[in-house]
Amino acid sequence: MGRNGHDMFEQSLLQSAPAHRGRRGMATAVSFLLECTLIGLLVLLPLIYTEALPALHYAIDLGPPPSAPPPPPPVQVTTTTPSTSEVIGETVIAPIRIPTQVARVVEQVAPPPLNPGVSVPGGIGNDSHSAIVSVLSEHPYTPPPPPIPTVSRAPVSGGVMAGYLISQVQPVYPPLAQRVHVQGTVVLSAVISRDGRIENLRVLSGHPLLAPAAIEAVRQWRYRPYLLTGQPVEVETQVTVNFVLSPGS
User: Fold this and answer.
1) How far is CA 217 from CA 156, 172, 214, 236, in A?
2) Residue 69: pLDDT band by 50, 70, 90 thresholds?
3) Which 8-state DSSP code applies to residue 84?
4) How far apart are alpha carbons 182 and 81 in whole angstroms?
5) Which of 30-39, 100-109, 221-230 comes out lowest in average pLDDT?
6) Which of 236, 194, 243, 245 is nearest to 217 (CA)?
7) Terminal alpha carbon distance of the chain
8) How far apart, in whole angstroms, are the C-alpha atoms of residue 178 and residue 246?
9) What is the pLDDT of residues 165-193, one digit of tens each?
10) Any residues with CB less than 8 A from the CB of 84 and at least 6 apart, and which?
11) For the whole model, what pTM was predicted?
């Protein structure tokens, strides 16, 4: 009894397995079909109801159309009918019509000269020598005055400038030169300004112990202005200073 019941249970399980598998496959197919249908509705819905799509606004600023360029001005072609023969290169073109009247050319006479009584030989008009001489005598040629020379500095000898000296300071004999018994002549090159002052001194010759005393004295000398063509000018000259020891020094 127990074995028969066990066999009957196994047979029932074997018979129910194919049915269960068939129902499961059908459920899977129905589920797949529903999903495809739902996806298709989601895709087709925006295409059917276009009002649901967001509106796109396009704003394009279209200005007035450019004006067309003005038409070119009309070309006027004028034709002339030659009344006389023309020569182009080496070809002579005969006139189309012969003129009935011949134009008269009147030559203008050259006007007479402004002063027919005075002329230059080789020119137009009277070439009388007496007329030329009379004009030159009425308007004699006067040469312009020579320019006044401008001199900024004039070289003048020391002897001449000695007569223009108005203030002379005697040099002080250097004590050292006296002790060593040095005496002699110092020659200086001097530039005297327009107002008679010494501007520049330079030693030309002389003992070194005597030259400083000579420069110190001559720098204080004053001269009258030296005039050249009525104008005071600078003078370049030489000044001589003698140093002589007194007897018993």
Assistant:
1) 21, 8, 5, 18
2) confident
3) S
4) 120
5) 100-109
6) 243
7) 189
8) 10
9) 999 999 999 999 999 999 999 999 999 99
10) 95, 99
11) 0.41
The pair of three-digit structure tokens given for residue 76, joined into one six-digit string: 């006027």
Q: Residue 35 contacts by C-beta under 8 Å, 6 or more apart in sequence?
A: none
Largest separation between any pair of C-alpha atoms in the chain:
193
Length in residues, the chain: 249
Which residues are 201's β-sheet partners?
190
Q: Could you tell me the pLDDT band of residue 59, with boundaries at 50, 70 and 90? A: very low
Short-list 215, 222, 214, CA closest to 200 = 215
Amino acid making up residue 141:
Y
| Domains of the chain: residue spans and CATH | 153-169+178-243 (3.30.1150.10)
Q: What is the pLDDT of residue 131?
A: 62
Q: Give buried/exposed letters for 23-51 (b at 16+ CB in 10 A, else e).
A: eeeeeeeeeeeeeeeeeeeeeeeeeeeee
Residue in 146, 134, 114 with CA at minimum distance from that of residue 229: 146
Structure tokens that stand for 162 in this block: 């000695």
Token pair, residue 244, equals 């002589």
Q: Are 238 and 197 in contact (CB under 8 A)?
A: no
What pLDDT is attached to residue 58?
Answer: 46
Q: What share of the chain is helix, strand, coil (3-state, %, to 5)?
A: 30, 20, 50
The sign one gets for the Cα dihedral 90, 91, 93, 94 is positive
